Amino acid sequence: MNIAVVGTGYVGLVTGACFAEMGNTVTCVDVDSKKIEGLKQGKLPIYEPGLDNIVINNYNTGRLLFTTSLPDAMTQADMLFIAVGTPPGEDGSADLKYVLAVAKEIGQNLDRYSIIVDKSTVPVGTADKVAAIIQAELDARGVQIEFDVVSNPEFLKEGAAVDDFMSPDRIVVGTASARAQERMADLYAPFVRNHPRTLFMGVRDAEMTKYAANAMLATKISFMNEIANLCERLGVDVENVRLGIGSDQRIGFHFIYSGCGYGGSCFPKDVKALIQMANKIDFDPKLLNAVEARNNAQKHRLFEKIVESFGTDLTGKTFAVWGLAFKPGTDDMREAPSKVLIERLIQAGAKIKAYDPVAMKVARDEFPAKFFDEGSLALAEGQYEAAIDADALVLVTEWKPFRHPDFKALKRLLAQPIIFDGRNQYDPKQMKRDGFSYVGIGR
Ligand SMILES: NC(=O)c1ccc[n+]([C@@H]2O[C@H](COP(=O)([O-])OP(=O)(O)OC[C@H]3O[C@@H](n4cnc5c(N)ncnc54)[C@H](O)[C@@H]3O)[C@@H](O)[C@H]2O)c1
């Protein structure tokens, strides 16, 4: 098949590369010419395990192409995937300007039957808007061309995106068109060969499915963080509670880790967007509001715990921060809890030495330049370098190399043997035995 994927970010690049890997010819389109030029030279704009090989191999075989011109891509392709960003607007609703701009450009250039696929996460009703914009452009051109707009939300996880795309739990396709359904089933057949799991449904159902999935996962995390905060006040170790409830098959272990809050480009923005979708139709989303509020508060817990130990004036104190990305396996720092923590520590007068296995380059752009210029924030060469002479170590992202560190070395390097564990990675009893003062979440 001949496919165009518009938007070459975390979702678009993985989608394009994986379709190409299955033998399709794919043109990835992006307005960011630096990104496109870099990709042509084999330089990936994001860190995603295993993606570089697939991109480079398919580019070299000519199945994966890169361009800044959507009209050029449309000369070849008749399945057009929209995978551009849908960031939160001022009121928290999904900002559709990028999606709708692509729809307009498609309408201006469409010259034969095509399937337009919304892969971006978009509010219920967006496929209708995309269709209306394309139709308006066709009308303005005075041409009659058939097209279908399909909703095909993406469920990949950053850090495991290639595996998730190649072996999805399910593929959701929302369409009322038999022709589009057949083409989508055909396109995805190689991905679900051994376990047919493509779910066809209405367009609006598919749009809502994506939000409901992310909201459910965010709810599990916020629920567990609420329980953790209660545990702290009641003298309970939430880690034992987690093991106790996760072993119930109806609950399961996924997404019930308490910590310093969820971040990333999806959960925060999608929960906010769903709240706004509800507000717009005068429905009070009580549970979603609570999920969001708990998470916003949770991102401040580590700072609050540090202040409980060190006082509100942190002038002259230095903290080692392990982990900047919003979760392990990615360099994505959008809405990362590390940002809230570091900003608050610096506001309180502290200095930070931070280390992340892959997000160091991204971190340079995520924090204000003055933090670096004034010496409030330094990026360390390695995890142990960050700890040298620090008054405490703060674990924010549970990258594997942080899970079982050399505690003897840490004790030697830190000015004070204090660990704030924002992901409950360490055993409090062992920490005590090793001579650390240990503060976790909910224990
Ligand atoms: N990141 C994830 O883990 C994830 C998972 C599932 C779904 N999603 C959803 O997928 C969508 C994309 O997310 P992302 O993380 O890949 O975003 P991203 O910011 O990494 O990438 C978006 C890309 O779109 C490009 N773009 C913007 N306007 C364009 C235009 N008119 N033409 C061509 N390119 C254009 C941008 O330059 C950018 O490279 C969002 O709706 C997101 O909610 C993301």
From TrEMBL:
Its EC number is 1.1.1.22. It is an enzyme of class 1 (oxidoreductase). Gene3D superfamilies: Cytochrome c1, transmembrane anchor, C-terminal, NAD(P)-binding Rossmann-like Domain. It comes from Pigmentiphaga daeguensis. This is UDP-glucose 6-dehydrogenase. It comes from the Bacteria. SMART domains: UDPG_MGDP_dh_C (SM00984). Keywords: NAD, Oxidoreductase. Pathway: Nucleotide-sugar biosynthesis; UDP-alpha-D-glucuronate biosynthesis; UDP-alpha-D-glucuronate from UDP-alpha-D-glucose: step 1/1. Residues 320-428 form the UDP-glucose/GDP-mannose dehydrogenase C-terminal domain. Belongs to the UDP-glucose/GDP-mannose dehydrogenase family. Pfam families: UDPG_MGDP_dh, UDPG_MGDP_dh_C, UDPG_MGDP_dh_N. It catalyses: UDP-alpha-D-glucose + 2 NAD(+) + H2O = UDP-alpha-D-glucuronate + 2 NADH + 3 H(+).
